[in-house]
Fold this sequence. Notes:
Rossmann fold, four-stranded parallel sheet, five-stranded parallel sheet, 2 domains, single chain
Amino acid sequence: xxxxxxxxxxxxxxxxxAFKAIEKEQQSIGYYALPDQDITPLLKYCxxxxxxxxxxxxxxxxxxxxxxxxxxxxxxxxxGLTRKLYFFESTDPINITNLLSHIEFSKTHFLVxxxxxxxxxxxxxxxxxxxxxxxxxxxxxxxxxxxPLETYAKEINSTVxxxxxxxxxxxSVLSTVGLVPLALCGIEIQALLNGAKExxxxxxxxxxxxxxxxxxxxxxxxxxxxxxxxxxxxxxxxLKYFCEWYVQLWGESLGKHQRHSAFHVGLTPIGLIGPEDxxxxxxxxxxxxxxxxxxxxxxxxxHDNITIPDITLPHLEGxxxxxxxxxxxxxxxxxxxxxxxxxAQDDIPIDTIILPSVDENTIGSLLxxxxxxxxxxxxxxxxxTYNQPGVEAGKIILKKKLNQKxx
Length: 407
């Protein structure tokens, strides 16, 4: 699963210390337990939504939407999803108007997601939609217990679902936040959790992923000043929104003051999609500053066998080498070619993740893999992985501006 990154640094003492810290974190950080949860209550809730509903709309931002969107967009190209899923996650008026043009209110159920219950972006959008659809049965609210949002939802007699204890937004995709909208669209959420559980058990019970993740995290931590940019180069359009989720997870978790110093640290995340970005950003990786590591993600089985036709085009006979080639093989050949070109540079750290197929188990595994990797790197670079004071600072200023507006 990994190549050059594995063998650059090995520090068994550091790795053992990090592993013990992560083991201990399971007692206080809620996301670790999510693969083992009983989803019976969630499925029962989903069954209560009328069959006349053909669209689910999530009103939420950041961790309240990015994870579910990553899974949905990964699986959407496959047949079998029972409902459409839209995400209202921006206060851009053009975006809001455009999304609403795709929705029929009588056939749409809205999930309003806010951990705190007071997210400005979420409730500005909710207020607007509520002015157009005021039926309380059209809404389900997902929030922390006893939040202002729960109080409001109960007052208007809407359904309330809770987030599990101590699960931060960017780690919440395998909780109510992600599982409910995905299950409502026909996605097998138990398979999603099973994939995550395989990674969890491999890591915590001495499977091959324990060594993989510890070595990879150690490399990132020990080289975070030189290789301070981490690029995912995913060779499938289905992973575009996974890359967005990763950017939030990595950036918001690792860009911090260190706990025991005044230093600012972090690894800058960049999400790239092949082959399109190999015609642009690859130039910067190949010949630019040596401050970037690259993780290639490729898919073994695309579940699609379309093939380039056996056609000869006048004056373009040199391209007949493409004839009869499946697109799934071509895109992986492109990935392998770029990977080999970077391997030849010797000073660009690279590794590869191979996904067996496009299904729930696979994306569940990948999500949990990156959550564990994030926690390990956070521990090793000595930051609080689970807070976000830099994000909160902007929220405080915005609320002050809004309060001044009322005067």
